[in-house]
């Protein structure tokens, strides 16, 4: 064999080997990128990706957690697909098999882990933090302490002794590692935002302050089930305040029971005599503070009540109320809708 022929054959063999190796590498890479994998030591694992982390750092974190099998395929893929600069910092939860391609897409989209929880209207501050901790958000003892952070609302209610009424009811997305102060402050900040928008439309009435509006709104929230009745109930309470009548709201007595000896879910006639500054049967004027967290509609009703001459309302037992202008009409409504109360109606009773 001539030297030239030997050189050609060697070159051909080398080319075949290189092409074959490249093809094999390509097949391996394709297989790695499209094969689901999960080998974490637990049923779920959390990976915290720092801000500005490099491709190799991210791959290392995922590999060490058992989320991807090999680092190289992941790094090559996100660099080749121009995702390297789009990787979002945050904590990610992994609990099932996924391909490196799917994992890269999640991180590029910023699909960080959070707990989504809805805080309904009308909960007390204590009930709110208990709901949060039952859903693995925050620490109950720490949250009890955070409820004393009245410095967060001092400009709104200088007389506030806690954050009752200022934890805005809404759906929140809390990160797993948020501090207790951050969690509670998020709800307070949401209140400030929503309340600020409302008073831009309905300015706080002359002679009132924000704390009093929130207190009135909290009573409306607890007294009303039918949304259309909020402005009507607000008008009754405003009319009674204006004329010096007791507000006579069961919801204030229930709150007094909750913060003292406890509330068993039923309000008894004897409970109406419980001594508490929150008992609006015994004490005229507004209670010393909110009794629950009012929603936006109740805050709007407190800021802009209907103009009526109603002074009484009684439950129709279907979620709505019968409103009356005078006590005689109120007694007739009580006899019609609340027969057990008709024998011994309490004078001036709102409900």
Structural description of this entry:
The protein is mainly alpha-helical and 351 residues long. The chain folds into three domains: 45-112, Dna Ligase, domain 1 (2-Layer Sandwich), CATH 3.30.1490; 115-201, no CATH class; 210-342, no CATH class. Helices cover 46% and strands 8% of the residues. The protein is built from 13 helices and six strands. The strands form three sheets. The protein has a two-stranded antiparallel sheet. Strand 5 and strand 6 form a beta hairpin. Helix 9 crosses helix 11. The radius of gyration is 32 Å and the shape is elongated. The termini are far apart.
Task: Name its key features.
351 residues, 13 helices, Dna Ligase, domain 1, mainly alpha, two-stranded antiparallel sheet, two-stranded antiparallel ribbon
